[in-house]
Amino acid sequence: NFELKTSLFSSNLACNVIYLNNVDVESLSGQMAVAKALRSTYDNAESVQPTVVNFKVSNTGITLTDTKKK
Question: Which of 9, 24, 36, 48 is the most exposed place for a label (fewest CB within 10 A)?
């Protein structure tokens, strides 16, 4: 729903989330991109260092900020 999306972006929503990993999904999208990211994260689980980040959505985009390095 376009109105709901517009409302969410104009609300400047924010919350803390756990950031696990960054995976280059090349030109993949949708289910294939998610599957590659999950597979890579699980395959490298011993080197994953979870970090709490602030996740903020606004009309200008999405911002992730490391809560320990403000």
Answer: 24
Region for 36 from its dihedrals, namely left if φ exceeds 0, alpha if ψ lies in -120 to 50, beta otherwise: alpha
The full DSSP string for 16-49 is EEEE------TT--HHHHHHHHHHHHHHTGGG--
Per-residue model confidence as pLDDT tens digits over 24-58? 998 999 999 999 999 999 999 999 999 999 998 88
Q: CA 55 to CA 51: how far, in whole Å? A: 12
Q: Has residue 14 got a pLDDT over 60? A: yes
**Both tokens assigned to 65:** 């900020």
Amino acid sitting at position 14:
A
